[in-house]
Amino acid sequence: MFELVKAGGWLMLPIIACSVMALAIVIERFWTLRRRRVVPPRLVVQIWQWIQAGELDDARIRTLREGSPLGRILATGLVNRHSSREVMKETIEETGRRVSHELERFLNTLGTIAAITPLLGLLGTVVGMIQVFSVITAVGVGHPGELAAGISQALITTAAGISVAIPAMIFHRYFRGRVDELVLDMEQEAIKLVEVLKGERVAAPGVKPS
């Protein structure tokens, strides 16, 4: 492996750095975008049970806000539960936009890596071919050993750049879709909370909010 990196020339260094960054982002996003962490199940039901039992207080709202991205959105709605339906929805939407932006953290970086690593590989190809033609100019074409270094640099950097770009692009698209799904789920849960608190939805089987 070291010999391949060495043969690829100095342009292998930014390509390797991009691969390390991409791997770190993928691992971090897989951990951060777990569904149970972002959208805990039955959270609206739990909130309604607190309300029915008279247990909803500032401490529970604070715990809810700190527990998950969905909890942060719902906590904003609960803080404004005595306001009008429109005000409650507006505050929830504002918090939802901030949460959505946070869920997309590092995805632009991952997309940039997917875009620039093939270009770095192409640059390595150009540098390698320049080296080949410089050798041809100096010693002619009768020394294949002299030409091999430039050719290998051109091929190795291209292969390395594409090898990093393909998985980076795949995971970038995957995480974009996952964020969209999570945002949609959070939006639906927030709508349920608004409708339950404002008396437009049955909170639980056989029970209507007062």
UniProtKB/TrEMBL annotation:
Q: Name one GO cellular component term.
A: plasma membrane
Tell me where on the tree of life, at the top rank, the source sits: Bacteria
Q: Classify the main location.
A: membrane
Q: Which residues cross the membrane?
A: 7-27, 106-130, 150-171
Topology of this chain in the membrane: Multi-pass membrane protein
Tell me the GO BP annotations in alphabetical order.
protein import
Q: Which residues form the MotA/TolQ/ExbB proton channel domain?
A: 68-187
Task: Supply the alphabetized keyword list.
Answer: Cell membrane, Membrane, Protein transport, Transmembrane, Transmembrane helix, Transport
Q: Which Pfam families match?
A: MotA_ExbB (PF01618)
Localization per record: Cell membrane; Membrane
What family is reported?
Answer: Belongs to the exbB/tolQ family.
The protein in question is named Biopolymer transport protein ExbB
- The organism of origin for this protein: Ectothiorhodospira magna
User: Taxonomic lineage per UniProt?
Assistant: Bacteria, Pseudomonadati, Pseudomonadota, Gammaproteobacteria, Chromatiales
